[in-house]
TrEMBL record:
It is found in: Cytoplasm. The keyword Transport does not apply. One of its GO terms (cellular component) is cytoplasm. This is Dephospho-CoA kinase.
Amino acid sequence: MLRVGLTGGIGSGKSTVAALLREWGAVVTDADRVAREIVEPGMPPLAAIRERFGPNVIQADGTLDRAGLAAVVFPDPEALRALEAITGPAIADRVAQLRGSVPVDRIDVYDMPLLVEKGLWVHEHVTIVVGADAEVRVARLVGQRGLSESDARARIAAQASDTQRHAAADVWIDNGGSREDTQAQVRRLWDERLVPFDANLRGAIRARRSDTTTLAEPDPGWADAGARVVARIAAALPGQGIRVDHIGSTSVPGLVAKDVVDVQVGVPQLADADASGFAAAVRQAGYLLVAGNDQDHPHPADAAPGEWQKRFYGGCDPGRIVHLHVREIGSAGWEFALSFRDWLRAEPSAREEYAALKRELAARHSVTRDYSAAKEPWFDAAYQRVQEWAREVRWTP
């Protein structure tokens, strides 16, 4: 089942996107609705709010004065943290209950305003952020919700910035224009990414790129995409002594690359990756083990193959092709993946040389596997250069 996190700043129009996803078949768990339910009269969080913030935030009929409470907490970060400490556990328990009951053949959407602020996006397969210009959001809050301009700006300032949301966003929906434009964006997302991703997860189908050799120009978005994969894998494997790194060409700024995010998962012992719990956790995160892909090309060519063993997983997301390389921490293969990346980052001439080689070989080899094989002689020579560089600069992983 595909898990989707949906978020956006106050006034961004997130509810519009949630309604569209619900209309097309997703089950949407609304964190705001849950937050209202857990502070109804008779619920323990309401009593705790009264004790912390006083009787003035409770109306004559015993219900919460939400506007009055908001006026207290949004301008005051300490008060906002105190409120979240009261309501957060109750909301989390109820959300877990609701999402646990979503049928396996439906897409599970979590509509959560603070998904980025709380770091909860790492538990979702896809994070959708709905955005709009700050002035548009202020106008909506003033015109549609009756807030004062100062209150609207204070609420916006209390939330994550657009920069923070962009870093977490797999998909950014621009909701600053017409409803028709927003609907078209969401429809494409639903048809081209969410539905196929869900089908891949349920059918255990790996998303694959074309076998045709295609190099993309450097994309600044690769760094954030890699960081999101790293964060999600780390969250999926807590307490297992792992190290997760963005590697490969998309981890090197300014380098042409196939549009594939490569991530290395370091484990204390390679046998740890063969434990049933490890494979299950990685699959739950959206990655499938590819049987038989368990050996890297050793460097130099006559090196012991055992130092270059690995496990390989492919992602299920058709909108972002990801390869996971699981290697033993301290092995030659694990160390070279990191040192080669850092060498290219630090040495412009090496980066330019590698880029030229990639372009030349891509022009000569139209099939990806032939292109990859043709690079190996260069890698054998580069391995020695990387080792020398590592000694000179006293590089450590």
